[in-house]
Amino acid sequence: MRPIFAKPLSARHATLLALLLLIAVAPAFFPSNFYYRVGTLIFINGLAVTGLVVLIGYAGQISLGHAGFAGLGAYACALGPVHLGLPPALSLVLGAVLSGLLAWLVGRPILRLKGHYLAIATLGFGVLVSMVLANEAWLTGGPDGMAVADLGLRGLLKSAGIKVGNAELWYWLAGLILLAGAWLALNLKDSPSGRALRSLHDSEVAARTVGVDVAGYKLSAFVISAVYASVSGSLLALTNRFVTPDIANFLHSIELVTMTVLGGAGTVIGAVTGALLLTALPQVLTALQEYEHIVFGLIMMLVMIFLPDGLLPSLHRLLRRRSS
Amino acid sequence: MTLLEIEGLGIDFGGVTAVDGVGFTAEPGRIVSVIGPNGAGKTTLFNMISGVYLPARGRVRLDGEDVTGLAPNRLAERGLSRTFQNLQVFLRMSVLDNVMAGRHLAERGSTLADLLGLPSTRRRSRETERAARALLERVGLERAAEREASALSYGALKRLEIARALASRPRLLLLDEPAAGCNPVETEEIDALIAAIAAEGVAVLLVEHDMKLVMKISHHVVVLDHGEKIAEGAPETVARDPKVVEAYLGAHAGREGSHALG
Asked: CATH number for the domain including A55?
């Protein structure tokens, strides 16, 4: 048996280590508090995108409606404390459970569809959620949105004698949750279920002949990714203390998919890189903000044409070819 | 002791009868080859037996149980495994992962446990990896274990599919042209491998164009032409059957026919 330090780092551990380092070290280079906010948004988007890695990267299924689940998570946190008297943290859990259930219900019929049909069906689902959120003004405040209760974590820490700025607190909290989400998705990848998902991605007929219940595993991936999107939406609502139906918008779904495929849908680190680039760019280059959606569309097209595997896998391949 | 029994199996595509009234049996430890000119319906027959196509007529029985029209994953649970003529390898996965995926039925468990990376999940993965490496060694691919499957040669992919099919420890194995596109040395290896698999008590059903291989390792040969069974029996009897000779010579004047005779 070799000593443990002589073993090469597995991709799983390397990814977690890289994420941990990124989260821990980045604040040392922040010129202002504003960057904690940018970091928080990156991690929150990174979480939704990690869920899409399971759906798009592992299982090879597309969804253009995941912002719908983010909307459910966000509004669960807005409505739970007001109507059910639930604390915000429990509302987040409730939203995740509801999103998972809904994904299970709508996923059963629509995952029978393939390619464009699946994309259109999920797109329709997302549009439906965002329309309900915008139109049921008596409940959701309509297009003007509604305020979201305070998570209460800062007060809790304060009473324990720990003082931390709001932006900073959210940075660490979102970072931790992203790490947990990445850990789960990485566990899945090389597990029996992960192999089943990746096998049906490459050949459904062969996956079925080795005994994989293709419909069942697709559904699992859809439910898992919906829960990720829901938690990400909840966090976004809680950190903004405000939510509008825009969160469930079709364009938000497109953003999430663009982030996933830009970095490389097959790996967690690739997808998080995509989230980092596409979240940070509009924040840093404010001049771009007006053209954000055009830029996103352009990036998606270019990636699909020139880097179908995504940025990181393509770079990796290029480097390997150079070195050999 | 019959493991597989098919009876009057038939299917039509758009009004054209592709296979009709085909029946035969397969027993553990024996190799049954299905031969016939191109377009005779061999692969279609395989697709019906393995649940990929739903037969329009006839019955498929495994251990006396009617399994006609069951989904491929249900048939896999009953011990059926197969390879594909036009390779269906998981190309984006590593060679090792391909074979590990073949052990799905033995290693599957709760997806929640897999997400959490529970010890039970990791134990199952370790057992699968051990079994998969042994199978890779058996088909001579152990040194390619960590490579992406898409990097393998055609002949190697054929062997990879056999290893994946064996990973489920099948009782009935359907091999669709396992030696197609392989050089004579590789064909020889596959030939020995198939004989060894059957010797372990697996019922093997083989579609193959290499007549030398078929005549050498088959216990029983079924001949199809235009979707119908025209002959069956021991290899040497079938090779002398005038109907078989005519089917081959009529369809392909020459090469394959003389192989069938040889």
From this structure: 1.10.3470
Cα A242 to Cα A145: distance, rounded to the nearest angstrom: 7
- B58 SS3 class: strand
AA identity, residue A130: S
Number of folded domains in chain A? 1
Q: Give tens-digit pLDDT for A150-192.
A: 888 888 888 888 888 889 999 999 999 999 999 999 999 999 9
- Beta strand residue intervals within A69-224, DSSP E: 146-147
| Closest CA relative to residue B43, chosen from A114, A202, A213, A205 | A205
Pairing between β-strand B220-225 and β-strand B31-35 as defined by DSSP bridges: parallel
Chain A nearest-CA distance from B53, in A, is 11
- Chain A residues in contact with B105 by the CB 8 A cut-off are 210-211
Cα separation, B166 vs B103, in Å, equals: 8
Residue A288 banded pLDDT, cuts 50, 70, 90:
low
| CA B54-B35-B32 angle, 5° bins | 80
Q: What type of residue sits at position B70?
A: L
Tokens 């019922």 identify what position?
B203
Which two structure tokens, joined as six digits, stand for B42?
Answer: 């061999």
Q: Which residues is B31 bridged to in the sheet?
A: B204
Do B73 and A213 lie within an 8 Å CB cutoff?
yes
Determine the Cα–Cα distance for residues B223 and B205; give it in Å rounded to an integer. 13
Beta-bridged to residue B225, according to DSSP, are B228
Domain of A249, in residue numbers: 4-323
Q: Given an 8 Å threshold on Cβ–Cβ distance, is A213 in contact with B97?
A: no
Contact map slice: B 101-140 vs A, CB within 8 A: 101-105, 107-109, 111, 114-117, 121, 124-125, 128
Closest Cα of chain A to B180: distance in Å? 19
Q: Are A260 and A60 in contact (CB under 8 A)?
A: no
Residue of A nearest to B74 (CA): A211
How many CB atoms are located within 10 Å of the residue B134 CB? 14
Q: What is the ipTM of this complex?
A: 0.89
